[in-house]
């Protein structure tokens, strides 16, 4: 077997040529809501990253550092260089210590290599309190899959989009004899990001946290970030309501402490938030009546349930006319005897004690 002719060594290229090649695979901007957007279509290797780190820090990363959240778009990234993984992960790693993120087995050399985050980066790491969303598609492959999976396992990013291809970490083309046929074979594999043993994404792909068609992934990501941006305000208003209104006052301090220390990193929808809040608050208070609900205004709602009329007001006056009184009783109370001789009484409005006395 004979390897095909190799491309010229990267380091034989000038700095301008390296930058031009890099710009073809990178795109960045700041979106509405101060959300940083970084699209990466190819993961450069260590040589390129080391050579261009000053350029990247000054022209790309510095412009994204001031954003309140970041979207890393890997939907069009079908591969890259394994040696580039630490550079991507390190800028998003919020810790001050190095982290072992993966172990790679290489078949041709029969060796394993541990991949760690860098001891330091040029510039600053992206803030630990800022949300990161990774976009994926059915074409996201190889090194891009490994990066998405590592960030997901680190609980550093929310993966939005489609299940990735589940391809190989590294491929090599081999010529079959002297023919014009080539065989593409996987030559490297991940042994499990973050020390997860045999668990790996190869073959099965990376499953997103929020599944959505790839073409809608950015829109979905921005909606998730809008919700997450509102979470501190929601928690604060809940705390104020508990202090002001909750009748079991002896349980309020424990509830406030629970809200202040809640882990909301996995919340990606209103349903997630309501479920998490109700589960936690009811467990702490031991009060199943304590409920959080989503109430949408008519201006922002759509659907049959949202078109329902407002609840009727409390009855406070009794009409003089007997027929009107009977109509009032019929409108307030519904009485019937169900099969099995079961009495049924429904009332949709409350009445003052004086009104009930007259009726």
From TrEMBL:
Residues 14-213 form the Tail specific protease domain. GO terms for biological process: proteolysis. One of its GO terms (molecular function) is serine-type peptidase activity. Keywords: Receptor. Residues 296-321 are annotated as: Disordered. The keyword Membrane does not apply. InterPro entries: ClpP/crotonase-like_dom_sf, Tail-specific_protease. The keyword Protein biosynthesis does not apply. PANTHER family: INTERPHOTORECEPTOR RETINOID-BINDING PROTEIN, RETINOL-BINDING PROTEIN 3. This is Interphotoreceptor retinoid-binding protein. It comes from Leucopleurus acutus (Atlantic white-sided dolphin).
């Amino acid at each position: 077997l004979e390897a095909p002719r190799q491309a010229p060594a990267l380091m034989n290229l000038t700095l301008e040529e390296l930058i031009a090649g890099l710009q073809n695979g990178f795109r960045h901007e700041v979106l509405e809501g101060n959300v940083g957007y970084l699209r990466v279509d190819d993961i450069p290797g260590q040589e390129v990253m080391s050579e261009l780190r000053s350029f990247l820090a000054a022209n790309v990363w510095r412009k994204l550092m001031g954003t309140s959240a970041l979207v890393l778009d890997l939907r069009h990234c079908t591969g890259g260089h394994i040696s580039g993984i630490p550079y991507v992960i390190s800028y998003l790693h919020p810790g001050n210590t190095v982290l072992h993120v993966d172990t790679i087995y290489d078949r041709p050399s029969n060796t394993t290599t541990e991949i760690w985050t860098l001891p330091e980066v040029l510039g600053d790491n992206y803030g630990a309190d800022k949300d990161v969303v990774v976009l994926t598609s059915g074409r996201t492959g190889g090194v891009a899959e490994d990066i998405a999976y590592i960030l997901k396992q680190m609980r550093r990013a929310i993966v939005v989009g489609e299940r990735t291809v589940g391809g190989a970490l590294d491929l090599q083309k081999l010529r079959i004899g002297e023919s014009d046929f080539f065989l593409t074979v996987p030559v490297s594999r991940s042994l499990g990001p973050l020390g997860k043993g045999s668990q790996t994404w190869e073959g099965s792909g990376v499953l997103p946290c929020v599944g959505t068609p790839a073409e809608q992934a950015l829109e979905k990501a921005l909606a998730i970030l809008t919700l997450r941006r509102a979470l501190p305000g929601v928690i604060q208003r809940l705390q104020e309501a508990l202090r002001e209104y909750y009748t079991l006052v002896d349980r309020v301090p424990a509830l406030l402490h629970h809200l202040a220390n809640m882990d909301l990193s996995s919340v990606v929808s209103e349903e997630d938030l309501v479920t998490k809040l109700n589960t936690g608050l009811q467990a702490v208070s031991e009060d199943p009546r304590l409920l959080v609900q989503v109430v949408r205004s008519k201006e922002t709602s759509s659907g049959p349930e949202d078109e329902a009329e407002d609840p009727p007001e409390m009855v406070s006056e009794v009409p003089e006319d007997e027929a009107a009184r009977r109509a009032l009783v019929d409108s307030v109370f519904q009485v019937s005897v169900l099969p099995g001789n079961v009495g049924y009484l429904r009332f949709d409005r409350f009445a003052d004690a004086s009104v009930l006395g007259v009726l």
